[in-house]
Design goal:
Residues 17-135 form the Rhodanese domain. This protein is of the alpha/beta class and 199 residues long. 32% of the residues lie in helices and 9% in strands. It is built from 7 helices and 5 strands, in the order E-H-E-H-E-H-E-H-E-H-H-H. The termini are close together.
Length: 199
Protein backbone atom coordinates (compact mmCIF):
# COMPACT_ATOMS: atom_id res chain seq x y z
CA UNK A 1 0.00 0.00 0.00
CA UNK A 2 1.33 3.43 -0.90
CA UNK A 3 1.25 5.81 2.03
CA UNK A 4 1.24 9.58 1.58
CA UNK A 5 2.09 12.22 4.16
CA UNK A 6 -1.43 13.69 4.01
CA UNK A 7 -4.82 12.37 2.97
CA UNK A 8 -7.95 14.41 2.34
CA UNK A 9 -11.38 14.13 3.91
CA UNK A 10 -12.81 12.86 0.62
CA UNK A 11 -10.22 10.07 0.48
CA UNK A 12 -10.86 9.07 4.09
CA UNK A 13 -14.63 9.10 3.61
CA UNK A 14 -14.18 6.75 0.65
CA UNK A 15 -11.89 4.37 2.59
CA UNK A 16 -13.39 4.65 6.07
CA UNK A 17 -14.70 1.07 6.01
CA UNK A 18 -11.43 -0.40 4.74
CA UNK A 19 -10.30 -2.95 7.37
CA UNK A 20 -6.68 -1.95 6.71
CA UNK A 21 -7.37 1.64 7.82
CA UNK A 22 -7.43 2.83 11.44
CA UNK A 23 -8.32 6.35 12.49
CA UNK A 24 -6.74 8.13 15.45
CA UNK A 25 -8.09 11.31 17.05
CA UNK A 26 -5.04 13.16 18.39
CA UNK A 27 -6.66 16.42 19.44
CA UNK A 28 -4.82 18.28 22.18
CA UNK A 29 -5.42 21.62 23.88
CA UNK A 30 -2.98 24.26 22.70
CA UNK A 31 -1.23 26.66 25.11
CA UNK A 32 -3.73 28.95 26.79
CA UNK A 33 -6.54 26.40 26.42
CA UNK A 34 -5.49 23.99 29.15
CA UNK A 35 -8.91 24.23 30.79
CA UNK A 36 -10.49 22.41 27.84
CA UNK A 37 -11.56 18.81 28.34
CA UNK A 38 -10.39 17.39 25.02
CA UNK A 39 -11.26 13.83 26.03
CA UNK A 40 -14.87 14.93 26.55
CA UNK A 41 -14.81 16.78 23.23
CA UNK A 42 -13.78 13.51 21.60
CA UNK A 43 -16.73 11.74 23.25
CA UNK A 44 -19.06 14.49 22.05
CA UNK A 45 -18.09 13.95 18.44
CA UNK A 46 -15.30 12.37 16.42
CA UNK A 47 -14.72 10.80 13.02
CA UNK A 48 -16.45 7.40 12.98
CA UNK A 49 -14.23 4.61 14.26
CA UNK A 50 -11.54 6.92 15.63
CA UNK A 51 -9.84 6.04 18.91
CA UNK A 52 -8.56 8.80 21.21
CA UNK A 53 -4.78 9.19 21.26
CA UNK A 54 -4.14 11.15 24.48
CA UNK A 55 -0.70 12.71 23.99
CA UNK A 56 -0.62 13.93 27.59
CA UNK A 57 -1.36 10.47 28.98
CA UNK A 58 1.11 8.89 26.56
CA UNK A 59 3.99 11.06 27.78
CA UNK A 60 6.72 10.09 30.24
CA UNK A 61 5.47 11.48 33.55
CA UNK A 62 8.73 10.62 35.33
CA UNK A 63 10.49 13.38 33.38
CA UNK A 64 10.47 16.98 34.64
CA UNK A 65 9.99 18.08 31.02
CA UNK A 66 6.56 18.05 29.38
CA UNK A 67 5.50 15.55 26.73
CA UNK A 68 8.66 13.48 26.65
CA UNK A 69 8.43 10.14 24.86
CA UNK A 70 7.42 7.17 27.02
CA UNK A 71 9.40 3.95 27.11
CA UNK A 72 8.75 1.79 24.02
CA UNK A 73 7.09 -0.98 26.02
CA UNK A 74 4.79 1.53 27.74
CA UNK A 75 3.76 2.97 24.39
CA UNK A 76 3.20 -0.50 22.93
CA UNK A 77 0.91 -1.53 25.80
CA UNK A 78 -1.11 1.68 25.43
CA UNK A 79 -1.50 1.15 21.68
CA UNK A 80 -2.58 -2.46 22.14
CA UNK A 81 -5.17 -1.36 24.71
CA UNK A 82 -6.53 1.21 22.23
CA UNK A 83 -6.79 -1.51 19.61
CA UNK A 84 -4.16 0.02 17.34
CA UNK A 85 -2.44 -2.34 14.92
CA UNK A 86 0.96 -1.18 13.76
CA UNK A 87 0.72 -2.95 10.39
CA UNK A 88 -2.38 -1.04 9.33
CA UNK A 89 -2.49 2.37 7.65
CA UNK A 90 -3.05 4.80 10.51
CA UNK A 91 -4.76 8.13 9.83
CA UNK A 92 -4.22 10.74 12.55
CA UNK A 93 -6.06 14.03 12.86
CA UNK A 94 -6.44 17.01 15.16
CA UNK A 95 -8.75 20.02 15.05
CA UNK A 96 -7.28 21.07 11.73
CA UNK A 97 -4.58 23.41 13.04
CA UNK A 98 -1.74 20.85 12.76
CA UNK A 99 -1.00 21.40 16.43
CA UNK A 100 -1.00 17.80 17.63
CA UNK A 101 -1.53 15.44 14.67
CA UNK A 102 2.11 15.85 13.57
CA UNK A 103 3.21 14.98 17.10
CA UNK A 104 1.12 11.79 17.06
CA UNK A 105 2.46 10.99 13.57
CA UNK A 106 6.03 11.41 14.82
CA UNK A 107 5.45 9.30 17.94
CA UNK A 108 3.98 6.47 15.89
CA UNK A 109 6.80 6.61 13.33
CA UNK A 110 9.41 6.81 16.10
CA UNK A 111 8.04 3.60 17.60
CA UNK A 112 8.11 1.70 14.33
CA UNK A 113 4.82 2.29 12.51
CA UNK A 114 5.52 2.60 8.80
CA UNK A 115 2.13 3.58 7.36
CA UNK A 116 0.89 6.79 8.97
CA UNK A 117 -0.82 9.77 7.33
CA UNK A 118 -2.25 13.03 8.63
CA UNK A 119 -5.79 14.03 7.69
CA UNK A 120 -5.42 17.35 5.88
CA UNK A 121 -7.80 19.90 7.35
CA UNK A 122 -8.36 17.73 10.40
CA UNK A 123 -11.73 17.54 12.10
CA UNK A 124 -12.64 21.04 10.88
CA UNK A 125 -12.15 19.98 7.26
CA UNK A 126 -14.17 16.83 7.83
CA UNK A 127 -17.04 18.90 9.23
CA UNK A 128 -16.77 21.49 6.44
CA UNK A 129 -17.50 18.67 4.01
CA UNK A 130 -20.65 17.82 6.03
CA UNK A 131 -19.34 14.36 6.85
CA UNK A 132 -20.82 12.45 9.76
CA UNK A 133 -19.46 12.37 13.30
CA UNK A 134 -19.84 9.63 15.88
CA UNK A 135 -20.37 10.05 19.62
CA UNK A 136 -18.96 8.04 22.50
CA UNK A 137 -15.86 5.94 22.94
CA UNK A 138 -14.72 3.47 20.30
CA UNK A 139 -13.81 0.09 21.78
CA UNK A 140 -11.74 -2.23 19.63
CA UNK A 141 -10.25 -5.67 20.22
CA UNK A 142 -6.71 -5.63 21.57
CA UNK A 143 -4.33 -4.49 18.87
CA UNK A 144 -1.07 -5.96 17.67
CA UNK A 145 1.70 -3.52 18.44
CA UNK A 146 5.36 -4.09 19.24
CA UNK A 147 7.24 -0.81 19.57
CA UNK A 148 10.65 -0.61 17.95
CA UNK A 149 12.34 2.67 18.88
CA UNK A 150 14.04 4.50 16.02
CA UNK A 151 16.95 6.44 17.59
CA UNK A 152 17.42 8.50 14.42
CA UNK A 153 14.05 10.14 15.03
CA UNK A 154 15.26 11.89 18.18
CA UNK A 155 18.23 14.23 18.38
CA UNK A 156 19.80 16.36 21.09
CA UNK A 157 19.93 20.15 20.92
CA UNK A 158 23.70 19.94 20.53
CA UNK A 159 23.25 17.67 17.50
CA UNK A 160 20.87 20.15 15.87
CA UNK A 161 23.23 23.07 16.47
CA UNK A 162 26.20 21.11 15.14
CA UNK A 163 24.34 20.15 11.97
CA UNK A 164 23.11 23.71 11.50
CA UNK A 165 26.70 24.96 11.61
CA UNK A 166 27.89 22.26 9.21
CA UNK A 167 25.08 22.51 6.67
CA UNK A 168 23.76 26.04 6.55
CA UNK A 169 21.21 25.28 3.85
CA UNK A 170 19.11 23.04 6.13
CA UNK A 171 15.76 24.36 7.23
CA UNK A 172 14.87 24.55 10.91
CA UNK A 173 11.16 24.73 11.65
CA UNK A 174 9.23 24.92 14.90
CA UNK A 175 7.33 21.71 15.53
CA UNK A 176 4.10 23.47 16.42
CA UNK A 177 2.72 26.08 14.05
CA UNK A 178 -0.85 27.29 14.12
CA UNK A 179 -0.85 27.85 10.37
CA UNK A 180 1.34 25.90 7.97
CA UNK A 181 0.99 26.64 4.26
CA UNK A 182 1.15 23.94 1.62
CA UNK A 183 4.50 25.30 0.46
CA UNK A 184 5.98 24.95 3.95
CA UNK A 185 4.53 21.45 4.25
CA UNK A 186 6.24 20.49 1.01
CA UNK A 187 9.55 21.90 2.25
CA UNK A 188 9.24 20.11 5.57
CA UNK A 189 8.62 16.81 3.83
CA UNK A 190 11.95 17.05 2.01
CA UNK A 191 13.89 17.15 5.25
CA UNK A 192 11.78 14.70 7.24
CA UNK A 193 12.03 12.21 4.36
CA UNK A 194 15.70 11.65 5.19
CA UNK A 195 14.58 9.89 8.39
CA UNK A 196 11.13 8.62 7.42
CA UNK A 197 11.08 7.71 3.71
CA UNK A 198 7.66 7.29 2.11
CA UNK A 199 6.43 3.78 1.33
Amino acid sequence: MSTTWFVGADWLAEHIDDPEIQIIDARMASPGQEDRNVAQEYLNGHIPGAVFFDIEALSDHTSPLPHMLPRPETFAVAMRELGVNQDKHLIVYDEGNLFSAPRAWWMLRTFGVEKVSILGGGLAGWQRDDLLLEEGAVELPEGEFNAAFNPEAVVKVTDVLWQAMKIRRKLLMPARLHVLTQKLMNLAQVYVADIFPEH
